[in-house]
Amino acid sequence: MNMLARKLIAKDFFLYRWLIIGSTAAGLIGLLIAAEGKVRFNIGMLTWLTTIVAFGVVLVMLAIASERKERQLQFVLSLPLSHGDYIRIRVIGLLLCFIVPWAVLTVGAITLIAVMPNLPDGLLPYAVLMCGFFLANYSVVLSSALHTASEGIMTFVIIVTNMNITLFIFLVGGLPSLNDHLQGPVAVWNGTFWIVLGAEIATLLITLSLPYLFAARRRDFI
């Protein structure tokens, strides 16, 4: 990766630094609330969940949709970059911007479950899968934004990915091989866990590869 690419990636961190810091702080506050008891646990975890999801959507819309609308992309493409370079910079930069708070909040949630005596360790596998789902879900939003300039399509994608969170909670959380161990005293890393995690990793790799195969070949970015 050349110096220009590194500077453009660093630009994303600089532009969205307060969004990254604010989202991380909000998620950590949610985890602190969750540590206060059973009722507050639900409120805190909802705050934590909402923060991660909302941060991903806002980050993509600010970085890509607003860039097109404000014609900033004309300046970027006037630099000595190919379309493929632009896509690579966008994918890496926005993925790293998301991973920073996501990683902090993932570690925070897992640590909370592991150290709090009132929370069963049986929740750990489900928490890991939930965090993996957030990352895969974000990759779908990011990939979609790089493929289309239509606000209508992006609105549809955001609605579908948000609905997928509810489906994940009820469908994956309801799988007997996972659900039966949620309240258990020890974490059970069974075959179902690894299948779901594998599906999340596959989704992440596929959606992050698609921009290189299709969006990078376009000539109508502006």
What is the total tally of β strands?
A: 0
Q: Unreliable stretches, pLDDT < 50, 5 or more residues?
A: none
Helix/strand-derived category reads mainly alpha
- The number of helical runs is 9
Helical proportion?
A: over 70%
| Morphology call | globular
Q: What is the domain tally? A: 1
- H/E topology pattern: HHHHHHHHH
Profile the largest sheet. Answer: none
Estimate what percentage of residues fall within beta strands: under 5%
Overall pLDDT level: 86
What oligomeric state do these chains adopt?
single chain
Ends apart, CA distance between termini = 24 Å
Radius of gyration: 19 Å
What does this structure look like?
The chain is mainly α and 222 residues long. It has one domain. The longest helix has 33 residues. The two termini are 24 Å apart.
